[in-house]
Amino acid sequence: MEEQKRINKFIAETGFCSRREADKLVADGKVTINGALAEMGSKVTPSDEVRVNGKLLAERTDKPVYLAFYKPVGIECTTNQTVRHNIIDYLNYPERIFPIGRLDKASEGLIFLTNDGDIVNKILRAHYHHEKEYVVTVDKPITDRFIQRMGNGVPILGTVTRKCKVTQIDRFTFTIILTQGLNRQIRRMCEYLGYEVQTLKRIRIMNISLDVPKGRYRELTPAEIDQLIEQTGRERENLQERLLPKADHASSRPTERKRWK
């Protein structure tokens, strides 16, 4: 009997998009299975014909791509290439990739990009409590009360933020380690306490720290990917066999992408 997969997992594993985006495509009636509209939760086998907007999808045979990119201020984390200064045009990567999560246009720092839609879903799931670390500068002197309240949780967006580690660096700067990803969370937390964020830089996601110059990217090493996948609880799926051939010829040196004029 042929193995069955949920339609969103199948689409994600082709590298077309993440599972979340695949669910939206199905809900919007843009996915067909053997000529019939797919439904949420539909299952497919390798012999089924799956199309998105009429384009035939096939199970991927190439190696997965995992990039660590230092996003500059002003770049939009969207795959919509009609949006000016979008991240896809900025990197101009030779393969189809998409960002894992977001960084506000006004923020900078580390963001992952990949063609592996399955891992995107697991990194973004809130219940995994994956750490993300930021350096933040605000518009007025930081107080002990500010640090304490930020760390204990702030009411925003109809909830109270999860407790987090906040450390003061100087009069106007602090680091914060979050294990959730609410929309514009740090900016909203600061605003609630009467502060305005001046600069915001993400310096770490899970086990990967920001170590490339602004506007450049590098491929994650096999060891880093191994740790990343372990932290997401994903099965290894012969990790070394899949990744080491690519690592043999891939450069780990940061790659500079084109700059906007």
Radius of gyration based on Cα positions: 20 Å
Oligomeric assembly? single chain
What is the CATH class designation of the largest domain? Answer: Alpha Beta
Helix percentage: 25-40%
End-to-end span in angstroms? Answer: 56 Å
**Chain-averaged pLDDT:** 85
Q: Helix segment count?
A: 8
Approximately how much beta-strand content do the residues carry?
25-35%
- The count of β-strands is 18
Write a concise synopsis of the structure shown.
The protein is of the alpha+beta class and 261 residues long. The protein has eight helices and 18 strands. The strands form four sheets. Strands 7, 8, 9, 10, 13, 14, 15, 16, 17 and 18 form a ten-stranded mixed beta sheet that branches. It has a four-stranded antiparallel beta sheet with strand order 3-2-5-6, with no helix packed on it. Strands 1-4 form a two-stranded antiparallel sheet.
How would you describe this protein?
With about 260 residues, the protein is α+β, with helices and mostly antiparallel strands. It has 3 domains: about 5-55, Structural Genomics Hypothetical 15.5 Kd Protein In mrcA-pckA Intergenic Region, Chain A (Roll), CATH 3.10.290.10; about 65-125 and about 210-250, Pseudouridine synthase I, catalytic domain, N-terminal subdomain (Alpha-Beta Plaits), CATH 3.30.70.580; about 130-205, Alpha-L RNA-binding motif (Alpha-Beta Plaits), CATH 3.30.70.1560. Helix content is about 25%, strand content about 25%. Strands 7, 8, 9, 10, 13, 14, 15, 16, 17 and 18 form a 10-stranded mixed sheet that branches. It has a 4-stranded antiparallel sheet with strand order 3-2-5-6, with no helix packed on it.
